[in-house]
Design a protein that fits this description.
The chain is α+β, with helices and mostly antiparallel strands. Helices cover 25% and strands 34% of the residues. The longest helix has 20 residues. The chain is globular and about 40 Å long.
Amino acid sequence: MYFENKTLENITAEQELLVSVMKKNGLECHGGWDFDRMTFDKRFDLKEGRFYLRVFCKAVSGDVGNNTAILKIQKPALGKYYYPHGVEYDENEEVFPTHLVKECEGILENVKKLFATYGVEA
């Protein structure tokens, strides 16, 4: 499921700041990058299954590989992991526990607030 209207989309920041803010909120990029994009994940292992909060970012300039990118945050998503197929972003919200959706919304709000303390807003 994609998180709509969180005003996190379109925040643009330098790669170093983006990585720092995401890490402070438990979102990390472990190999989820290419030269023009990065993906930050937070994994949740619950009795209902394994879920990932994902924040996708696209470079508007520079190069992710040499840490010179300026990145723009795209629409965040919550996905459920299905072995062996991978993560699916089912639009059927019944797949996602309500408490998890609320926790993820809180994390995204904290990311937004932390960027605001650095003077970075959408």
